[in-house]
Structure formats: C-alpha cells, structure tokens
C-alpha cells in the first residue's frame, strides 16, 4: 500500500522499516541509529521480495514477505534521521534517475499487535509520535525499496533471499547499506 493513511500520523512523523545493515546488531545500526530512535520492534513488509546486493540487500515489490525492524525516531531528531537515511540509501528525491533506492510509504505488519493491543507483544510501542497499529496490526512507514533501474536488474538476474530475512554473514560482499 503506498497511499498515505488519513487516520495515520503526518508524513513527518512516519516510522521507518529497515531490513539490512540498519537492523539491530548490524554495522549501520550503531553508526546511524544509536541515540536517534525511541522505539524498535520486529516487523514484516508484506508484498515484497528481498534480493542480495553487494554487501547489503534490496527489497522490491513482489509476492513475498520481508522481515525487518520498525524504527520510531526519538523526539526532536526526525529531520536529522531522515536526512542521514536518505543520504545512506542514495535517495536524491522521488524518481530521481541517480537514486539507488526510492523512499516510499508502505503498510508494515507488526507481529502480535492485533492480539495484544496497541503496543503489540514483546516490543516497544510505536504509538508515541508514530501512530499506533491500524486494523490488523499494520502501520504506515517509510521503506527504502530498490529504484527502478536496480529493480529491473534484480528481476532479470538478481539473487533472491529465500524467506525474506537478510543476514550480513550470509552475503558474499559483507555489510554496507539498508
């Protein structure tokens, strides 16, 4: 789903879904996220596929699921965090021909959220500043998907990551970005 949720938070307050080197325990998590998040919890991006990249993964639209983490920016650092992540992901603006990734809004599922109420089970609630889960435990979040040229290349000759779960130790080039 790529349209804004009228009942959701303003775009400036959206959480981020990460699935690669920004995951907890991965190198870019400490470099870019330490001290800049108010909440982190497991999440799943439906209707997406995960491909291996040169030390980092790419997610694209498809018939699968990508596992990752939903991050909520700490109070007062949203603009800084957005700028850092846009730079890391080589996102220059919507549809820019030199983008490596496109930053888009997608609905992300929070496992256990529908069963256990607004905060979900076993994680930090994303309600403060990011809006709580919608019906069925979904949250509108920013996601960095592979840009159009990269997506075309992945669809024709990319290496699909089975199960949609990236692990830096499983990639030949080692960690580098998303």
Q: CATH homologous superfamily?
A: Gamma-glutamyl cyclotransferase-like
- How many angstroms separate the termini? 20 Å
Mean pLDDT: 82
Order of helices and strands: EHEEHEHHEH
* Proportion of residues in extended strands: 25-35%
- Whole-number tally of structural domains: 1
Q: Work out the radius of gyration.
A: 15 Å
How would you briefly describe this protein structure?
The protein is of the alpha+beta class. It is built from 5 helices and 5 strands. It has a 5-stranded mixed sheet.
Describe the structure.
- It is a single chain.
- With 178 residues, this protein is of the alpha+beta class.
- The chain has a single domain, classed as Roll (Hypothetical upf0131 protein ytfp).
- It contains five helices and five strands, in the order βαββαβααβα.
- Strands 2-3-1-5-4 form a five-stranded mixed sheet.
- Strand 2 and strand 3 form a beta hairpin.
- The protein is globular.
- The N terminus and C terminus are likely disordered.
List the helices and strands and how they pair.
Layout: E1 16-18, H1 27-33, E2 37-51, E3 58-73, H2 78-88, E4 101-109, H3 113-116, H4 127-130, E5 138-146, H5 148-157
Parallel strand pairs: 1-5
Antiparallel strand pairs: 1-3, 2-3, 4-5
Give the key terms.
disordered N terminus; 178 residues; alpha+beta; 5 strands; globular; Hypothetical upf0131 protein ytfp; single chain; disordered C terminus
